[in-house]
Design brief:
Helices cover 32% and strands 26% of the residues. It is α+β, with helices and mostly antiparallel strands. α4 packs across α7 and α10 (321-331) packs across α11. The structure holds the ligand Nc1ncnc2c1ncn2[C@@H]1O[C@H](COP(=O)(O)OC(=O)CCCC[C@@H]2CCSS2)[C@@H](O)[C@H]1O. Ligand LAQ binds next to β6, β7, β10, β11 and β12.
Length: 373
C-alpha cells in the first residue's frame, strides 16, 4: 500500500450528475488530494488541464500527485531543439511533452515526483506550497538542509536543485506545479538535457541549468513513496479535516469527461513541436564526396514547426543550381522533422530516375539535414 499511514481510496463517481464539476462534489471537503494511477506524461498533463478547466477551485483546493515514465517536459514557450537531445531521446524511447505552463525544461522518470497545487487565483501562493513541501521533507529527515530560492527552486545543501517550479494562471483559477527529484536517473538527466544542435537562432524561453541531486542521495529513507506520503499528510494537516488520497485513472472518461480529447491534443506534433516560437537555422557543414570536401551552408526559417523558407549554398560545379533549387523547393512547407524530410527527399529522388550521382548528393545533404533535427 503506497500511503500506508493515511487512507488511499479509489474515487467512485456518482452516476446521477450531469455537470462535470459536480462529480467530485460528493467528496465534500475544503481540499482534495488526487494521485494518478498512470505514468503516461500526456495523460497526467491532461488531468491538469481537466482540473483547471472543470473543477470549482473557488470552493475546493486540489493537490494532484503524479509520476511519469522517462520523459522530457518543456515549457510552453520553449524550443525543443535548443533544450534537449532529440536523437538520444528517440533512441532511448524517452518521450517529449510540452506543458501549458511557462519556464524551463526538466527530466522526469519514476524517481521524480510531480506535485500540482490548484487553487483560486486569489489563493495562489507558490512559496506557501514550497514551505509545505519543505515541512514534509523535514518530517522525514529533520536535519535535511533544504530551502526555497527567489525563483522557487528547492535547493539541497545550498547548491543542489531538487525541485523546479512552473505555474499557469487562468482568469480566476491557477496552478503551481513542481518536481521533486527523489531517485531519478542522474546519469541520463544531463545527457538528454544537452542539445547537440548548434546554429539555432531563437528567442524562445531558455532553461536555467543547475547542479541537481536526488533526495535519496541525502538520505536513503527519502524514497518517492515516503516523500509523496509525507507531502499528502502535510497537505491534509493544513487544508483537510481528515487525511485521504484518492487514486484516479486519467483515462476514466466517467470521472473526467472529455479527457481523451485533451490527451490527444497534448500528443500531437503540432502541439509538441509546432508551438515552438518562430526560429532560424544557420548552419554550415562539409560533405566528403569522392575525396573532395564540399562546403554547404544552409539558412532556414521555421514557423509553427514547418520550414517556411530555405536557402542552400552549394558549389554549382558539385550540384547544379537547378538541382539545388529543386531540393530547396521540396523542403518548403515540410515539418522540421527527420521522418518527413527523409520522405520528401525519397519522393524527390523518384522524379529523377537513373540519376545515381544526383541521388547520392541529395542523400548526403539530406543526411546532414536530419542530423540537425
Ligand atoms: N526533475 C527535475 N527536477 C528539478 N530540476 C531538474 C529536473 N530536471 C532537470 N532539472 C534541472 O533544472 C534545469 C531547468 O530549470 P528551469 O528553472 O529552467 O526550469 C524548471 O525548473 C521548470 C520546472 C517545471 C516543473 C513542472 C512540474 C510538472 S511538469 S514540469 C535543468 O537544466 C536541470 O538542471
Amino acid at each position: 500500500m503506497l500511503f500506508s499511514p493515511i487512507s488511499v481510496k479509489r474515487i467512485c463517481v456518482p452516476v446521477l450528475c450531469h455537470r462535470t464539476t459536480l462529480r467530485f462534489g460528493s467528496l465534500a471537503r475544503e481540499a482534495l488530494i488526487l494521485q494518478s494511477s498512470s505514468s503516461n506524461v500526456y495523460e497526467n498533463l491532461a488531468v491538469e488541464d481537466w482540473i483547471h478547466d472543470h473543477m470549482d477551485l473557488e470552493q475546493k483546493k486540489v493537490l494532484f500527485l503524479w509520476r511519469n515514465s522517462p520523459a522530457v517536459v518543456i515549457g510552453r514557450h520553449q524550443n525543443p531543439w535548443k533544450e534537449c537531445n532529440l536523437h538520444l531521446m528517440r533512441e532511448k524511447g524517452i518521450g517529449l511533452a510540452r506543458r501549458r505552463s511557462g519556464g524551463g525544461t526538466v527530466f522526469h522518470d519514476l524517481g521524480n515526483i510531480n506535485l500540482t497545487f490548484f487553487t483560486s487565483k486569489r489563493k495562489y501562493d507558490r512559496m506557501e506550497n514550497l514551505q509545505l513541501v519543505i515541512r514534509a521533507l523535514k518530517s522525514l529527515q529533520p536535519s535535511l538542509d533544504v530551502h526555497a530560492t527567489k525563483r522557487y527552486d528547492l535547493l539541497l545543501d545550498g547548491k543542489y536543485k531538487i525541485s523546479g517550479t512552473a505555474a499557469k494562471l487562468g482568469r480566476t483559477v491557477a496552478y503551481h506545479h513542481c518536481t521533486l527529484l527523489c531517485s531519478a536517473d542522474s546519469s541520463l538527466l544531463p545527457l538528454v538535457l544537452q542539445s547537440p544542435y548548434d546554429g539555432i537562432l531563437s528567442n524562445a524561453t531558455p532553461s536555467v541549468p543547475s547542479l541537481v541531486k536526488n533526495l535519496c542521495q541525502a538520505h536513503s529513507s527519502l524514497t518517492w513513496d515516503a516523500v509523496m506520503d509525507a507531502v499528502a499528510k502535510e497537505y491534509s494537516f493544513l487544508y483537510r479535516d481528515k487525511p485521504g488520497v484518492h487514486v484516479v485513472d486519467p483515462s476514466d472518461e466517467t470521472l473526467f469527461p472529455g479527457i481523451a480529447k485533451k490527451k490527444k491534443e497534448l500528443c500531437t506534433w503540432d502541439w509538441i513541436y509546432g508551438k515552438t516560437p518562430k526560429f532560424d537555422v544557420q548552419k554550415s557543414f562539409q560533405i566528403l564526396h569522392k575525396d573532395i570536401v564540399v562546403d554547404v551552408s544552409l539558412t532556414m526559417s521555421i514557423k509553427n514547426g514547418y520550414i517556411e523558407s530555405c536557402s542552400m549554398a552549394v558549389p554549382s560545379h558539385w550540384l547544379s543550381e537547378r538541382q539545388c533549387r529543386e531540393l530547396q523547393d521540396a523542403l518548403l512547407g515540410s515539418r522540421f522533422c527527420p521522418s518527413e524530410i527523409v520522405f520528401l527527399v525519397t519522393t524527390l529522388l523518384r522524379t529523377y530516375p537513373d540519376h545515381d550521382e544526383v541521388h547520392t548528393k541529395w542523400n548526403m545533404i539530406c543526411e546532414k539535414l536530419v542530423s540537425i533535427m
